[in-house]
Amino acid sequence: MPNFETAIQPYVNQELDTRLEPLYRILIHNDEVTPYDYVIRILERVFLLSEEIADHVAWMAHNEGVAIVLIRPRYEAEKLISVAYTAARADGYPLTFSMEPEE
User: Fold this and answer.
1) pLDDT tens-digit profile of 45-96?
2) Cα–Cα distance measured from residue 80 to residue 98, given in angstroms and rounded to the nearest whole number
3) Cα separation of 53 and 86, whole Å?
4) Residues 41, 85, 101: CA angle, nearest 5 degrees
5) What sign results for the dihedral spanned by CA atoms 79, 80, 83, 88?
6) Which CATH architecture has domain 21-101?
7) Can you give the pLDDT at residue 73?
8) Which 3 state secondary structure label does DSSP give 99?
9) Which neighbouring-strand residues pair with 66?
């Protein structure tokens, strides 16, 4: 008979276990060059936001100058920002993201 207790143990990669890491806010900054619909596409594709939430974040950044996209552990926040930055530059847009510690 199989031992189900050992078969169901989840795999945890200790190097990437981020449960105890401090959290960071990923911020998007408004600019006057990047089209609004492009911003929404990046938010949906890179940050996996729904269309409704992506539109809300883009609208907030447009009106306030900056908006919170997500809150993630530092490693994940840095990776997402890097992917978004690279995609925007490849498409010729100056879309900017930053991060700050969550308090």
Assistant:
1) 999 999 999 999 999 999 999 999 999 999 999 999 999 999 999 999 999 9
2) 10
3) 22
4) 100
5) negative
6) 2-Layer Sandwich (3.30)
7) 96
8) strand
9) 29
**What type of residue is 14?**
Q
Tokens of 40: 């929404």
Residue 65, sorted as left (phi over 0), alpha (psi -120 to 50) or beta, turns out to be left
Rounded Cα distance, 74 and 68, in Å: 15
61: left (phi over 0), alpha (psi -120 to 50) or beta: alpha
Lookup result for tokens 């840095």: 78
Element (H, E) at 71: strand 66-73
Q: Give the pair of three-digit tokens for residue 23.
A: 């959290």
Name the phi and psi angles at 26, rounded to 5: -95, 125
Work out the average pLDDT over 33-53: 97
Alpha carbons 88 and 34: distance in angstroms, whole number: 9
Count CB atoms within 10 A of the CB of residue 33.
Answer: 9
